[in-house]
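Supplementary notes for students who missed Thursday's class. We covered one full example, reproduced here. Read the sequence, then the structure, then the short commentary at the end.
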Amino acid sequence: MNASMRRLAPAGALLALFTLAGCAGTGARFPGGAYEEGPRRDDKAFGESCPQVAPGTADAAALAESRALDAIRRTPQLSDFAALVKTAKADDMFASMQNVTVFVPTDAAFEALPAERRKELADPKAAGDTIRSLIVAQDLTKEDLGTGQSHPTLQEGVQLHTRAAAGGVTVDGAEVVCGSVTTSDARLHLLGALPGVGGRGPGG
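Structure (token representation):
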């Protein structure tokens, strides 16, 4: 991942696109995983990098109609994750998703990784394993994340443990810096670190 992809925008810019938008959808089969039927539950955006934005704005409406990968690619602070998807050739996987939860590390999270780990992620298989280890085939709200439970991911054998912490939520020790961002097919929780980094991160 090149240096230009790691330049960080101000925290408030993180949600220039990701404004709060309630969104409903029907379940659709996700290859190799479970899926949910019915409307997505309402949840308010939360986290230190989420500005308070009233729902119903043009940006919110546009986001609610965007697919998760499109929204990620249009957000500068998520460029490293978008690059990871490209490395893994995982566009088709994202195209098949509906009502899932994606934990998206920010560029700052990737920047903090050891050089050896960043080198590993240049391998398509390692990139794909990491992406699958950040996707849960359920719609998880802040309330769900705060219950102190483990959630199986699409990566076989990998679970993410979430819990409430200091008014927010952590995922295997990684802080959710902006949570419950909804798109037409997913709920996104943006992370300030890769889960488990400092120990053994998912897919590592």
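Commentary. Residues 54-191 form a domain with the FAS1 domain fold (CATH 2.30.180.10). The first strand starts at residue 100 and ends at 105. If anything here is unclear, bring it to office hours.
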